[in-house]
Predict the 3D structure of the following.
Amino acid sequence: MYLGNEAWPDLGAYFESESLALVPLGSTEQHGPHLPEGTDHLIAEAFARAAADETGFLCTPTVNVGVSSHHRQFHGTMWVSPPAFRDYVESLARNLTYHGVDRVVFVNAHGGNVPHLREVGRRLREDEVAYAVDWMWDESVPELVDDLFAQNGPHGGPKETAMIQHLAPDLVHDDRLAEARDGGVPSVAEAETIVHGARTFYDAADNTANGVLGDQTDATPAKGEQLFEAATGELVRLCEWLDDQAFADLMPEPHV
Amino acid sequence: MYLGNEAWPDLGAYFESESLALVPLGSTEQHGPHLPEGTDHLIAEAFARAAADETGFLCTPTVNVGVSSHHRQFHGTMWVSPPAFRDYVESLARNLTYHGVDRVVFVNAHGGNVPHLREVGRRLREDEVAYAVDWMWDESVPELVDDLFAQNGPHGGPKETAMIQHLAPDLVHDDRLAEARDGGVPSVAEAETIVHGARTFYDAADNTANGVLGDQTDATPAKGEQLFEAATGELVRLCEWLDDQAFADLMPEPHV
Amino acid sequence: MYLGNEAWPDLGAYFESESLALVPLGSTEQHGPHLPEGTDHLIAEAFARAAADETGFLCTPTVNVGVSSHHRQFHGTMWVSPPAFRDYVESLARNLTYHGVDRVVFVNAHGGNVPHLREVGRRLREDEVAYAVDWMWDESVPELVDDLFAQNGPHGGPKETAMIQHLAPDLVHDDRLAEARDGGVPSVAEAETIVHGARTFYDAADNTANGVLGDQTDATPAKGEQLFEAATGELVRLCEWLDDQAFADLMPEPHV
Amino acid sequence: MYLGNEAWPDLGAYFESESLALVPLGSTEQHGPHLPEGTDHLIAEAFARAAADETGFLCTPTVNVGVSSHHRQFHGTMWVSPPAFRDYVESLARNLTYHGVDRVVFVNAHGGNVPHLREVGRRLREDEVAYAVDWMWDESVPELVDDLFAQNGPHGGPKETAMIQHLAPDLVHDDRLAEARDGGVPSVAEAETIVHGARTFYDAADNTANGVLGDQTDATPAKGEQLFEAATGELVRLCEWLDDQAFADLMPEPHV
Amino acid sequence: MYLGNEAWPDLGAYFESESLALVPLGSTEQHGPHLPEGTDHLIAEAFARAAADETGFLCTPTVNVGVSSHHRQFHGTMWVSPPAFRDYVESLARNLTYHGVDRVVFVNAHGGNVPHLREVGRRLREDEVAYAVDWMWDESVPELVDDLFAQNGPHGGPKETAMIQHLAPDLVHDDRLAEARDGGVPSVAEAETIVHGARTFYDAADNTANGVLGDQTDATPAKGEQLFEAATGELVRLCEWLDDQAFADLMPEPHV
Amino acid sequence: MYLGNEAWPDLGAYFESESLALVPLGSTEQHGPHLPEGTDHLIAEAFARAAADETGFLCTPTVNVGVSSHHRQFHGTMWVSPPAFRDYVESLARNLTYHGVDRVVFVNAHGGNVPHLREVGRRLREDEVAYAVDWMWDESVPELVDDLFAQNGPHGGPKETAMIQHLAPDLVHDDRLAEARDGGVPSVAEAETIVHGARTFYDAADNTANGVLGDQTDATPAKGEQLFEAATGELVRLCEWLDDQAFADLMPEPHV
């Protein structure tokens, strides 16, 4: 069920019996020469909508712009500051509880949002108003990701390429995959971002010329579909697991 | 040109020659028994994308959730607090200037966002980093709106109904138009929200039983199309006017 | 009853039986070549004190500086940022509730304060600690204003001029009324502040050379007195209406 | 020169040749059974206006409500939180610099405002936009205060009583002076607020039954006048001294 | 009992029977040519640990950096802004209440922290979560301080010199005591920081060349020891007094 | 060189020739039944001081309380909120730049601080005032850690146990090592904190009964020493590397 498409009287029954909401969040930021800037929010929305369709849980509209200043040197990257992002997402999630929502799945497709979603989730839980988890598709199927690609590259790499080839093939510049690979960096390790134990890297531009990592030529729409199906299954099961928990069990433990 | 669909190298040319961005903003909130909760952000996005297509100016992804706590009593209304909204939008707009954007059109379809967009716009201008205007489609064609409908009703009324009938007909419950009218309030005046000069009304639920005003049965897809074309034309001309101004002329006057 | 003049033991009886407070708010900002910078706070204070005298309700001291950056290009305009204004007024109003006040009338004479007073009022109400309304004198007697003046001009125009001629005649430069009219702008419409539906105007200096609008020569002390009496009557009736409401009826409606 | 009474064109000459502003600040809070709640802001305004009259420097309208939560247990005390007060005053003072003001005298008559004015003053100075000092009348003539009264009592005591007897005799309940003395506390020392070196006192209600200290029966209008003349003289000389300094000499020293 | 040295199971018994915590706070800032920058936090920690050892009350680790921008012109001074300091200390103290602490002694050795600790303490008390007092050693034994030294000098003077000679003799440059005295200022009075009643001084560098006041040559380790023993005794008695109070008696008085 | 021990004149030479500072940060929080609550700040301080001694770079006093609410259910855990921590650390680091510091090593021994130090570091770098890196000792010698221990356990496990056995043996309850192991969780994997790709764990108490993980019986002082020497070597080399960089090379890349 997609909240944006429903009229309010038709949502009453949902809130009467259910208290879970899927909230898609992504970013609008450079994803190399071959992928669209909307990659992350397109992926987040696709997963959240698919899991909502399959389970009947409610999916909200998408937060399209996240914490991406580390990609700002590349044309078109949009971003908000971490405090602005946290406050916006916290306010949005906290207000959902007015309708009875008490568990939220942040279906997030942008790594830069993660610590901020954790911080928001913690506040909601410590206030005992809601339990929120953040979920990233690729972390739900790590073995499959590793099986499919030799050089994953966390940003703009073959796994994201395959995903957009599957979800929005018109938005992939298939003729630039080799260029993406050759102008980028094969792996995080080769980016040499760790100096004597310290992560010295702040921006994508610090270690890649075109903003991406991995071997994009290894991506295919079929791999994207396989990943999408597998990870959607994980998200569906996460929702079902969450729905099965007693609210009290999701809340903080008491003091020892 | 829609930013979310472009790869970063393809945006370089735009920022080299242009400095305007259209930013759609709406809300996700009840719009009566007949319209979807996404009404406002759907409308905002449609106008911004249409004007961008026609002019070649850049359109960003949409801010889908705005300042709507006054609709919260109806199932599904989402909202963020005014400070969270202002900070998110200001951060988003201010960061666009990193790429050279210095004029922003907030294509907004939700009245509750207006004072906050004004406040953000003022800050950007007083800091002399960008000039932002907020634009609402119905205020650009007031005579046409008045000509087409006898009872406009500012929220969920016939003008918004017609617009969604045109843009997303599947999302309108055409069989509930009479119910929307009969269960709501004909006009703001009849809602009796002014007591001895003071606006005593805070929430939609204070004066309407179903959240909407006006005579929805007066809406047709053809009226929606007519309005859409007319207002898109205004938005196009606004962009062209804004693009023609010298940046210095958009900045604050000096002290007398 | 004026709070500033009372010793604390003499206020105990009031708070025992009453829970309403009038809080005057204005601005200190340019009002053209003919009116004093204190115009708005002088007017607000006069109305609040008069209504308090007539009804016995409590009037607090005045907030003299408001949100006026849009008049800053003219010598002497004082202002605070919107967040500073909101926080100051919210703190002041919220703390009144400690003494039992649960309904507040913001007697406001400056348009620039309005959205901020609304935002504060909404927070107080959503927290269910108090119900606040903002009242502007000219909006309580719109027909009379229209009857008395041909060219109202919202800022520094004949209605404000007549009001100060009545309240503080020594502070009006009567010999500059024609200059005020001729150096300003006849009406908002003629200021051409709307471009294709967007309000492109941020500052008074954007469209007036001397900061004011309307035909000031149309003002007389008698008209000022007539307006003052009429609007004070409205304010008195607003206070009485508010006092008559049950607190629960002033609070937000429950979720549908 | 009082800013609130002037029209903007008449202030141009002042800002051309002068850069000093007097800003009166007080509180609205209980001052015992005999004095009005407005005591502090009445005193602050009287001094600032008198010094402005004598010197020609500019005086602004008054900030009437300050940091007074420590008097809240007594009917009618108004207050704002420290952050709200600081932000309001900082914004007000910082914006004065837009007109060329670069030195500000906070003419303050409420002890509870002092650390906050110091904090604001420090920020203005460290940013090198203005130099602000806070001035309290009784600290400018400490010997005279000690000469005139045996039991000063810092709050609502004879010095404040005498001052209001001089400035606004109608607002003093002269028939309650003995009651004020007998129901209060003779001196800070007798209030026993220090325990083993720690100030354990937070609120006036912690150690006084009626909110005041000292021997109020020792006050006379003549003493009030004497104090007013003497302290006004000090304020005048402070303004002249400040006006004589080079701006650079008022700014922070460089790093050693 | 020092919290930092204990394993969590060993703290359970303490929180079961006691609810008091000593929190040492100081600064890291210039203390003249003869004393270490850590002077204030070394002193605070020494007192808090000694009183905890003597009484069995709990002492937490030390807050080492405080509000010291007024010493910034001298090499090495560290500081945080007042809001950052207040929020950090408030958060730290408020969270102690989770374990049952409801009375806190801020053992503070830096004057610049005082108004901020008061503000934090007030918030904790007004929220009725804890009662906090701030204690400075030299204010607990004022007569002894006066007896021991002719020229106290509040910052880097003989009392602080003697204290470090006692607590950490290796950190005192005894060969620079005369230089400290001769290059500094004998007393606050001679620093001439008051102009017509206004404190015109913001930074130590405004009136001292080497950052310190008083006659440092008057300090001896024996005097330091005498002061330490005497003031520790006061702190011990303060803790015992505080422990003896009923919590309700420490909370704010009700409205009169 | 340890800043806290130096008098200001002796720091002048350092700042003339060097611009690097080591800032130790830790936490005060439960570390199981066998380790002291100060574990993390003791470790951080030891590393920072050792590297400063070896290289001559400047080490500041320690921030002893960090972001640890996830350990709050165990007696004695202290914490500050994430915003309070970030603001305190940012203010502290930013103000170091006043003395010429433009590169900072956050020597951090608490994982919960990491995302916040990254956020602070990013702000400093984007403002181009300083370059800060955060360093954790165990991440600098990952192979050695893996070689020495079979069950590392990230919190309170054998690596931290060995470290405190080396640095402060008196503070380790060696007789509780088996109890620590048996009452805790062997590894993160066995804590089963990931559900279908989502990290469902917020607090240590969610999945451990005594707050710790790993096999503590595997720890020895000798292993602690070996780790300390190896990791100190890495920190020394990090400082030297950082010192060798041109400041411009540490700043953000320009827009492509």
Observations:
- Residues 122 and 132 of chain C are 8 Å apart (CA to CA).
- The mean pLDDT of chain C is 96.
- The longest strand of chain C covers residues 20-25.
- Chain C touches chain D through 55 residues (CB under 8 Å).
